[in-house]
Input
Amino acid sequence: MTTMREAFVRTVNDGIAQDPRIAVVTAVISSNEFPQENERVVDVGIREQTMVGVASGLALTGLRPVVHSYAPFLVERPYEQIKLDIGHQDVGAVFVSIGASYDDPVWGRTHQSPGDVALFDTLPGWTVHVPGHPDEVAPLLEQALQDDNRVYVRLSLHENTRAYPVGEGFTAVRHGKRGVVLAVGPMLDRVLKAVDSENADVTVLYAATVRPFDSDGLRRAVEETDHADVMVVEPYLEGTSSHLVSETLQQIPHRIRSTGVKRHAELRNYGTAEDHDAAHDLDVVGLGSAVRSFFRG
Amino acid sequence: MQRIPELFARMTGDEKHEWAAASTIDVLWVLYDRVLDVTPATADHPDRDRFLLSKGHGPMAYYAVLAEKGFIDESTLDDWTSWDSPLGQHPDRVLVRGAEISSGSLGHGLPIAVGTAIGQRIGKSRGRTFVLVGDGELDEGSNHEAIAVAARLGVANLTAIVIDNQSAMHGWPGGIARRFAVEGWQTAEVDGRDHDEIFAALSAPHDRPYAVVAKVERSY
Output
């Protein structure tokens, strides 16, 4: 069984071998997965600010840098470097994280990054992919390696049982009349189980790409239902995409229910990812409860 | 350099002598006049030398030199910092021809310079990277990440110029050059107002990253 991380490593190593534009910049984490003898593979030691700065410089000279680390050290620690060294310099790069919101909760808060997508959302021009299956990683990454834009790919240990085609906006995996549930990345399987358990007559959209946000796809799905009620299920900070749902539906009265990693408190608990899912009501029981209360009547 | 005061005054108004106090003016002039292999015609050429102004605060000297060397139209100096001027109090590379980076927030230029120098090496470019930082700017920890990385990775086509006007709040006991030397950089110290000294230092051969500390009078 291939993990998302393994699919990422394989795709990038193929890219390094085939495309002289591809470079990789790491800060120790995963560096042994890439051919260090290749001059386009640069490890800077445990120095995340310089990791992003070096990537910027490589991009300024025409290379296509892939920047990789554990999510909090890729996104949160060098956030200003992402804003200035990549965005403000007007260069492109492919940022790929592992760890997600709490893939390994025994490591505690320092290794959790539920705010990563919200942080990228503060910056213009970023494409954000949240694949839900390892087989979705290669096509998303292969496209990203060819382009010149700014891309964030959020990998997780948590995945759905099957992959969906990616790169074409939201995918309707189920149709109903009572409303729409938008499931992002690894949340899809749980959303489908929750909807089934509640016998909810709803459309379920699947998103492996959340930025750009497929407003047209969401609007079409809403138009085909009897109620403009949209529940968004994201594996990171709750409400991260709410503003885009509001913007999409600004011409019609609508309701939104945002679910995701809760914002109100820092959980000082270890345990398993499943424990944390339950604490954030992101397990099947919690999602079922949200579906039942939101789509009532 | 005789036109620099006039160009400077187009931004600063009547203060006739303000240009002379700019800590970077002499280094910038020597760089663009005698050291850098870059012209307006080669500003996008892969083999050009790249100059990264990391200390983007107080960019009048930089704009004056870019205007004098023909990278930017000197008429743009007159209404700098206005709404649709390409010239702000911090340079934006998207708006200023010849500006290799946008800067303003301290501690970004040196890490980026390590990247451009590595990129030049990967691209088999003849070009070198020069980056200018301030001694106060060196407070930012990102510089010290980059100082270590540049030497460990043997980035020999990189020169960092530190303008030392003793503006760092807590100083650098033992001197700035030592911070680079201990990491394996070649170093030199020059009088940052002496053009021949600056030129000699910036022209010296080096087979590892090179730091030139240009000392100028203390700023208050």
